[in-house]
Structure formats: structure tokens, C-alpha cells
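Please annotate the following for my students:
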Amino acid sequence: MSGTAKIKVVPPARADGTTQVRMRVIVNREIVPISLKITWPALLVDEKEGVLLTKLPKAQQPEGYAEAVAVARRVYGPKWEQQAADYNLAIGQALAKANKVFVDARLGGYELDKTKFLRDYQSSGSKLDFLVFMETSITERWNRGEIKKNTWKNHRSTLNALKEFRKKIPFNSFNFDFPEEFDGWLRKQGVTDLNTRWARHKDVKTYLARAKRERIAFEPPYAYFKVPIGESSWKPMTPGELTDLEAYYKMCAPRTPHRRILQKFLFSCNSSLRLSDLVHIGQAKLTDRKLKFRPMKGQEKTGKELLLPLTRKALRYLQEAQTENGTEGFFNYADQYENRTLKAIAGVLGIETNLHHHVGRETFATEFIRHGGRVEVLQKLMGHTKLSMTMRYVHVDEDMKQAEIDRIDALDSAS
């Protein structure tokens, strides 16, 4: 890794005769300009030494020197030399701050790029305080388009809760008591819903994992804490509701909003794909009813592509969407509009389940088990690392329980 930080004069001169002075950082050949909010006569800037000048020996005075000094006096008044001293202090601090980022990267053994340099430079406390690190990381991920607005809002909400919990959370303060204390504080604040508390802990673990990848040293607080988790708040459609929705889809004319939205939603019900993956499905590769794609959620953890076999029904919804809409994937409306439309369709059909794009995965998981699928296979299809997460999506209804009892009776009768 290579990196340098120098002071540069940035022409042209302003109307008052001064010129902007910036710090120019180069990280692996990428130029990163840093505004210092400093202007000074260009002739009185020593770029090599990184300082502003107030005087030069007569033998070193270039043409126009007297005029440059006059500009400084006119713009900054009688205390112009003190202003130069103050600016030089600020420049020195900026250079030291930039060089510290380079040193930390070398000692930590990680590579810097333009984005990481700016993050570390702008948030010099990010290596010390988890709250600073989390806040800058959220902003960085949002600016890169790595997280969607709802995820950004949820992560900001967790950050705000942490700030209320403690004003500062130094990395070296993490211990095994932290999760219990944070969970207890959440309960005292009236957060009794298990899933809400689970989401808060999950967000904290997400940014602790990022800090670990940045080689920030801390004691892993969640090593012995089991994050509380409840049943998913989203419920799957019943088999009858799914049948009604499929029949309604067939009645919708091609290229109408209802049909386009249902193509995407019913594909999810038959494939388990999340909305974030459905939106980008045009980038996936389809071969012999197998979809090869890189999941949007959690992609920075593994970066691996997944191979998802599709049912014939799922494939039909995708192919109809591509043919009718002339797209590589599905026709995408705004998420809010699509979810409002799903609720409107449910109202028309008398579907009691609260339709939302999340319901697609719930429905797929439950129907998969209903039809005799094995839960360990379902785990792989849904891309979960833990079986407990998969089980949140499986909703055993009365019909499924009765079917299993009938199956056992049949086995007893045959023996």
C-alpha cells in the first residue's frame, strides 16, 4: 500500500487575490482532495514544506511578492501573520491525521482505498469508539448503495438506541456482560417484543463483524450470549389463499401493474427469494432451471454465488415477466407501491393474510414443509447459516398437524 499527503495550491485565484489551499492525499494512485477551508496568496505557500509564509529573505522573493503580502494584509487585517500561524497549525494537524491513518493501516495489516481512507480520516475516533465506527460505517454503506433505505433506517434506529444506552462505547470496554446489559436496558425502555430486541442485537453484531474485519481489537461480547428471537411476525398465506391469488394472476392482462407485481410476488412464493434479490434478478444466470446469483443480503460476508434450483411454476412466472415486459428480470415499481398493491389485491380477493413481499418467503418455507420437504434442505435453499433462522419461517398449521397424525396412523395400520 502506498500513500502520501501534501499541501497543494488549487488555482484559479479568487476575486480577493487569495487562492484555495487543500491537502491532496494519494492512496494507491487514487487522488483524494481534502478541503481545509483555507485561502492564502499563492506566492506565499510553500507546498514542499506544507506551510503558509509571511515573509521571505529578499534574495528569495519572487516577482509579485510585495503584492502577495499586500493581499494577505488587506484580506486578513493587522493580525494577518497570526492568521498564518493559526492556519499552519491546522495544516499540521491535518497532515498528522492523514499520516496516522496510513500508519494504522500498515500496523494493522489492512489495505486502504479512497473510501476507507476518508472514513478513517473523517472519523478519527472510529478505531476507539464503537458508536463512531458504527455511525460512519452506516453512512459509508448507504453512500455506496450497499444498503437500502429501510435497512439504513433500521440501523440508524439501533445506533440511536445505543447512544441512549451509553454516551460512549469504547472498543476496549466490550465484555461478556454488554449484551445482557443492553438487552435489559431495552426491556426497561418497553421493548418487550423478542423480534425487535433480536433485530437490535443483530445490527450490533453486524458492525462488530465489520470492526473485526478492520482488525480493531476488542473482546467479542456475544461469544456466550444467545440472542433472543421470537416467531416471525409475518405469516404465510394459506393454501386456499395462494390458489386464489394464482387464479387472479391469470385473469390480469399483460403489462398491468397487478400482473407485474404478482409475477414477482408469486415467484418469491415458489422460490424463497428476497425482494432485494428479485429486484436484481436480471443480473443472475439461468441454466437448466438453476439460478446462479449473488445474494444482496449478506454478500459482503461471503461474496459467494448461490445456485438455486427453480420449480417449473417459479420459472414460468419469471419467463412470462421477461416476455411480456421486455426485461431481463421483473418489472420493478417502488417497494412501497408494490406492497400497497398487494394489500389492495388481498382486499379484493378476501385474503386475510397481511400481504407484503416478506410473506413470499414465509409462504415458500411453509409450503415446502407441507409438501414433505426436509428442513435441512430448506435451510440451504433459503441461504441460512443456522437452522434456527429457517424455523422462524416455517409455520405449522392445524392441517399440517392433522396430516402428520394421519400419516402415523397409516403406518400403524400397515404394521
Strands lie at 3-10, 19-27, 30-40, 45-46, 51-52, 285-287, 290-293, 306-309.
